[in-house]
Structures are given as C-alpha cells and as structure tokens.
Amino acid sequence: MTRVRLAEGFGRFGETATRRLIAEMEKTSSSIARRCSGRGSATTRISATGGSGRTARAMPPCLIMAPVLERPILPGTADPNEQDEALRLGRLTNPTVHIGLNQLRRVLNALIRRYGPPAEIAIELARELKLDAERKGEVNDRNRRNRVAAEGRSRKLNELGIADKGGNRAILRLWEELNEDNAHDRRCVYTGRQIPVEMLFSGAVEVDHILPFSQTLDDSNANRILCLREVNRIKRNRSPYEARDDLRAHFGPDAGWEAIAARTARLPREKRRRFEPDAMARFNDKGGFLARHLTDTQYLSRLAREYLSALYPEKGEGSSHVWVSPGRLTEMLRRSWGLNHHLPDHNLSGGGDQPKNRRDHRHHAIDAIVVGVTDRSLLSRIAREAGREGLMAAGRVAEAIPDPWEGFSDEVGRIVRNITVSHRPDHGSAAKAGRPKDRNATAGRLHNETAYGLTGAKDRSGRDIVVTRKPLSAFRKPSDIEAIRDDDLRVKLRDWTAGKEGAAFEQAVRSFGHPERGPRLYPGIRRVRVVEPLSVIPIRDRSGCPYKAYKGDSNYRFDVWELKTGVWKDEVVSMFEAHQRDRTSPTRRDNPTARKVLSLQQNDVVAIEREGARELMRVAKFSGGTLVLAPPQEAGSLKARDADKSDPFRYVYGSPGSLRRWKARQVRIDELGRVLDPGFPARKPKPGA
C-alpha cells in the first residue's frame, strides 16, 4: 500500500495525523514545520575543506531548493516513488532564473572549497536607490489599486463558477482592458466583434501576443490581448500591422486597419503603442528583448539574496551576513572611480567617464569589485541623499568619494585584464538530477517541428523531394508558385498573379483565397501543398517503411579524427545522429585505425598556438569543415560585430589542417577562471562513434 499513487486532492495521512501535523506547524517555526512534513531542513550542508582548512558549508542544489525558497517554487508531488526530483520536490517555473541560481551555486561552492565560507556576501540588486516620498506614495497607491482589482476579479470568477486561479484572473483583466468604461461594449480589437463574459472560458477566445512572442520573448501583460480564436490562426507570428491585409480579407471592413486603430484608442497606452505600424522596428531599435531580461534579472537578484541566506541559518542580532546594494549605486561609483577605461570600447572616445563596455564580459567583474568594496555606511549615506534630494544629489555624493585605497584603479585594471572568462557548458543533455537513473535524455530538439511527406523522388544532389503545406501568405514572389504540387492550382495561381510583383503580387495571392473575390474553384483556400528538395530524417513504421520525415536543423558536435597518415579530418554530428544508439561514425568505419583528437560543442574552449603564444578560444559555431572561434571575453552579437568593418573583432576560422598546425586541444575553465590545459598532444579520447 505504501507504493500506491494517490489521485490529486488526496493525502498520505489520515485525518488524525493531518490535524496533529497542522497543529505542530502552527506553533513551531517554518523550518521545524518543514521537517515535520518530511521536506527536510531549511539548509543543506556538505563537508568540504576550503583553502583555510576549515569545514565549509555549501549551497543546496537548485533543484532541491524547496526548503529554502518555498514561496516561488511550484510544489512537487512529494511522491517518494517519483524518480524525477524536479517533479517530486518542485522547481522554479522561470527557466532563466532557475539556470541563474544554479550557476550562482556552482560559483559559490567553488569559492567555498577554495577559500572557506565567506564572512559576508554582498550582492547587487537590479533596483533603484531609495525612493523619495512622492515616488514611494505612487508605488504604494498602485499596489493598493491592483490588490483591490484582483479581489474583485476573484469575486467575479466565483459568480461565474470558474476556478479562482491566477490564469483566470489574468483573462478577466485582459477582458476589462478592452473597454474599462463599459463592460457591455468590450470587443475584439482585430474584428470589432462583441466578447461577452460568457465567451471568455468557452474556447472561443484566446490570448494573443500583440507583437509576436517568437521575436520579442515578451509575455508581459502589456503585450497580451484577448481576441477571437480565428484571429490567432490568421495573425500567427506577425505584428498587427503586418497581418492587417489578411485580417481584412477574412473578416471584412470591420477588420480594416482604420477600424482596428480606432478600437485601440480604448486600450491602455502601453498596448496602444504596440499596434502602431512601426512597433516592431521601434522594439528592435530599443534593444529587443533586453527589457524582458532585465525583469528576469530583477527577479533573480531578489531570489539570490534569499537563496544565499541559506548559508547562515542563525537568527537574531548580528546574524545578517548577506546584504545588498542597488545597481544604480554601482554605476555611480564605477564612473566616479574611473574604472570604465580599463575595458575601452573602440566606438567611444575613452577616458574614465565613458560608459562601461558591454562588449566585453569582464565588465561584470568590475561591477563585482565595486559591490565588494562598498560598505553599508556608504550605501546608507547615498540612499539618504537620494530619498531626500533625489538622484542628482546622490550622484554628487558619489563623485566626492575617494578611491578605497591608493592605486585602487590601477590594481583593478591589472586584475580585470588577466581574467579568463568561463562560460556555462551546455551540451544539450538533461541534468542528471532531473532524469531517471541509468537513462540519458536530451534537452535539445532532435529536429524541427515541420513534418514532411516523402514523394520517393530525389534531385540531382541526392536530396529527397518532400512535400508539405504552406500558407498562401508565404508566397512572396512569382517564382515561389512553381513549388506548388497541384498542376491545376499552380497554373490558376500563376494566371491570377500574372504581371504583378512585390506588394501587388502579395495582395493578389491573398485575394486568391478570398471566398468572394477569389476564383470559384478554390473558395476560402488558405494553405497549399508544395514540394522542395531537402536533406531530411526519415521516420519509419514498425515494418521499417518510411512514412514521413523531418529536417534536422541543429548540429550537436564537431569531431576531428586523426588518420593513420597524420591528416586531421572533421565530422559534424547532427543532434539527431548523436542520439541514435546504433550510430557508427562514417570516418571511423572507413578508417578503423583513426583516432578522435577533438570532440567539441558550442561554448567549449580550445587552446591554440599561433606565433608561439597560447590563445584561448570559445567555439562560437561550426559547420562542415570549419570551426568558428572567438575569444571567451568577447560579448554582444558576434555575427553583427564580425560584419561591422569599424569593429576590430573578427571570428577565427579553423579548418582541420589549421587546427593541427595550431596544436589545438580542448581545455576546461572552471568556475574560478582556472585553466586546465592538458597540453599538446592532448590525451586522446577513446576512439568510437
């Protein structure tokens, strides 16, 4: 009976035991209550000898942080028979924050093993300095209004007989924003059709990302709106302005751009801006999805403070060992002490007052140094000035603060320039703690999502001729029509668009599928079957007969083999091939004595020797025959920087022959920046697939 899996809503304890547990939880501290519930202690300790010889405490793994970060973690099943620890214990729902906290744990535990437990931890929070009275009042007033509104939505859901959950309250909020002044005139912005409250949870209404989530990664309320289900199918991954013609063609004049623009006047300002014709261009000009990452950073920094406090379970006066400083203060002091010039940006004139160079990952180290030498009295002094006189006064105070010690700036420059940047390895495999024992699992996609039909034919290059469906809106030029498989449809569409190009051609293609304006033989057609030559992965049935195929878009690793002649030969292994149990390397099959000398994946680091000096290079990308490398400290959009003639950064391209001349070998950079270089020739990996 102890292994029976109970249905949701049923517990493992009887009524008597449950009442005793609740009573114990109510009268004891939260940490003791968790122990009574079987969830473990508030902190997890392991023995590790630091550099000082002391026994060091270590951070608990992020996957089992539930006792430490109880509130933000989605509860698990608590089933002792559940092999997946993420399901059993619960985990953070935000993957960016989850990964960030795990990396924080790795770095801190490495520091503890090397130097012993820290006496204090200073951490920077992505927040402003102390708010003045007026600003603080505005924030409190906004929070009060939001709380009252949420309570009203809970009552409304209870009246409708709908579960009072966060997702349902969010839908009600989006519905209210369609017209906050008149609940009886809330309409789909795209079509003008009425959306009564009865439609909200019937499946006829969906949440749409105004600017496509696939391009913006913006899932904030400002980028979400309620619309009819059919609208989402037509709009797809486009902005409202980009989808305007298709919406009008399907829903008529009420879905015209002028009508849509008139209805957006009722929306909150942050939503109205996303309906403007240049909304996507403005989004990209302002840094794309960086704003979303800032929100993740703010959330991560708050949880990091709570997480780090697990090292210090003692309570009472003097027990606070983790303290924070705001990012704005770090910026002020970094500029005041003239630290930005140590990593100069070629686009700037230089000098201590220049902005920090975000194209070099080592700028984070400068921030960390500033946070580390900022004491609480200094933080309190500047915060008081910001609260009393505003940021300008706080800035003047920061400018008057002397260097922490003589020669501070020069010492920072010398240390930062000698830093070796360590990148988080990501080999596309699920974490061991999150999967059943003795089983491997991939965290990456083996192929793209589009399924292709096999025609049995091949082109001159040996690629399969495959067939798939595409929307009419995907046809951008007359030559695209030739890929249509149906002969009659191809001829009809060719005649319909004859003599048209550019925008006129696209408009003609859209009108072809209109139920009234299009040809009678194809009323309301939206998607057509097209053929194209592709290198695909066949999917076979039980008898071994292929019945569909997928395109393998991603590569898994770049292998280099040394043949018996001494020649190095490359072999790119796709994600799909790497996860086949019976895979055999073609190079190894054709050359039984070949030895694998390199097996590299993205973000791995290699050491090369050019002109007698060792250089560390990170694997940026790779394709058949070429390994594309970049120094580990280089940041930003490397592809754009490589194409920018004014930027001195350039990719380093390595062929198997040049890698051999450069004495290339894989090295490891640990969390403390220490380089583990096996030298050349490196210890050979075991030969095999």
Structural write-up:
The chain is α+β, with helices and mostly antiparallel strands. Among the domains are: 165-288, no CATH class; 451-550, no CATH class; 555-676, no CATH class. Helix content is 35%, strand content 16%. Strand 12 (555-562) and strand 13 (568-574) form a beta hairpin. It is globular and about 85 Å long. The two termini are 46 Å apart. The model is unreliable at 29-56, 62-67 and 287-294 (pLDDT under 50).
Low-pLDDT segments, ≥5 res: 29-56, 62-67, 287-294
In DSSP terms (H or I, runs of 4 or more residues), the helix count works out at 24
Head-to-tail CA distance between termini: 46 Å
The quaternary state of the protein chains shown equals single chain
SS strand fraction: 15-25%
Q: How many strand units? A: 20
**Biggest sheet: strand arrangement:** 18-17-16-15-19-20
Summarize the main sheet: 6 strands, antiparallel
Mean pLDDT across every amino acid position: 77
Shape: globular
The radius of gyration over CA amounts to 30 Å
- Helical percentage: 25-40%
Pairing-aware structural class of the strands and helices?
Answer: alpha+beta
